[in-house]
Write a structure and sequence with these properties.
This protein has 503 residues and is mainly alpha-helical. It contains 20 helices and 14 strands. The strands form six sheets. The protein has a three-stranded parallel sheet. It has a three-stranded antiparallel sheet with strand order 4-5-8. It has a two-stranded antiparallel ribbon with strand order 6-7. Helix 15 packs antiparallel against helix 18. It binds one RNA strand of 75 nucleotides through helix 4, strand 7, helix 6, strand 14 and helix 11.
Amino acid sequence: MTKPVRVRFAPSPTGPLHIGGVRTALFNYLFAKKHNGTFVLRIEDTDQNRYVEGAENYIVESLNWCGIPFDEGVGKNEKFGPYRQSERKHLYKQYADELIAKGHAYYAFDTAEKLDFHRKDHEAKGKTFIYNWHNRLKLNNSLSLSEDEVQTKLDADEDYVIRFKSPQDETLHLKDSIRGDIKIDTNVLDDKVLFKSDGMPTYHLANIVDDHLMEISHVIRGEEWLPSLALHFQLYAAFGWEAPQFAHLPLILKPTGKGKLSKRDGDKLGFPVFPLEWRDPKTDDLSRGYKEDGYFAEAMVNFLAFLGWNPGTEQEIFSLDELINAFELERVNKAGARFDPDKIKWFNHHYMQDQDNHDLALAFQKSKSELSQIDTQYIEMVIALVKERATFVSDFWDLSHFFFVAPSVYDEKASKKAIKEGTTTILNTVKELVDSVDDFTVENLQNSIKGWITSNDIGFGKVMMPLRLALVGALQGPDVFDIIYMIGKAETLKRIDSLIATT
RNA sequence: AUUCCGUUGGUCAAAUGGUUAAGACGGUUGACUUUCUAUCAGCAGAUGGGAGUUCGAUUCUCCUACGGAAUUCCA
């Protein structure tokens, strides 16, 4: 008796998909998979003016990179195709006509300029202009004009739009899975345009027709659509169709300041808002992407899943499968969530630890010309040592350059802290000790040097700090003995000599 | 201006009509008898305000404040 779950993600190709869109897609995907349903991608390109070259392809690639590919859509399992609304253009007019025939819609001949004038005029008087029962008889449409006049205009090929006839004095009861019941007084609704004079439907009509034709069972979309819900409900009723269930996701807000996260915030605030980088075909501006910035798709997905949803347990790290399993629409929050760039870094650091060292080594090697001649296996061992401190592959060089190149300068502060009276003598002894270790292992090195320190009661700091400075050039990095072992005896002795030479 | 939605520490957030209101990020302190951006441990920090219902409200209702969204022949 329950219908199969079919959800859709329906972006318009007006630019790159931003992080809020990715989250909407993700929640749709999770919901679909959880219920063995189908995740549909539909391209809502009814506004030809805003069409951007490459945006559609970008959307598809982004979903793929995130690991949440669509099951059905453009170029894939086209059972209900086509999936671009521009290619479905011929479908919509008949539905608009049907509404006119049923008395739910009407022709309107008012020009955009005229309406604009009315809006401004009302605004100047502190009122809001609403095209509805209140004033539609004073305007230029098939309700105010005689049948002959209307026919004459239509015959003369005059521009017209088709508007929904919003009822007077009714109370609508809307249902939203996340927000519960919402009551709306129809008197505040306006007669929305359903069909534009350019022959294309508006979002509202196309959306309802397509969701119906594609047998969408649940509409999961952003909260910015909530004000349109009343219209959409009425449209389903006017057609006599069963409406899908609606769920409006909370907005994603800017990390600081006011308002929802917008496409321009990213470069302004220093973090990406797009999954992949995007070059604007018109301006040639490049916007950063999570992928190129070194984020792992799993980390981004995990983070995004927690923006507006949580499992109610203390678990925070979720694989995609675990998310599918745990996801429930009922646990989605109502309030908008602020985007936190720090938290996604934390997720990335976590996922970094799970990455394969060999893969990381290859990525690291590719990113740094200094490493091109170095044995990948050596790089892999280095990564094993520094990974726990890394959030991105791009962190590796700062964390590990001394495994590949001897320090050329010594950090000033560190030198002050590490080099004291007697340091030269100590370093000379360390050299002898290192030199005398025949079986060159971390353990033997440790036993030798630590043993010497303890038995002579010298103090670890006095030895370890200058030694570290000699090897690294600063007071940082992994265990000193690991470093010695990795760079080898000869290089170690050389570096100690270099430091002694400066004192 | 109007309509709708929302409001738990700086941020993400849990929980309940009834003891000290979880946890995470960030912050901070300490430990790791060598560093640290890592790790571990500790600490600080919250139910916007006002009424009402109730024995009791952060939880339910109303008002208010604040925030957000929408009011396009954009989606």
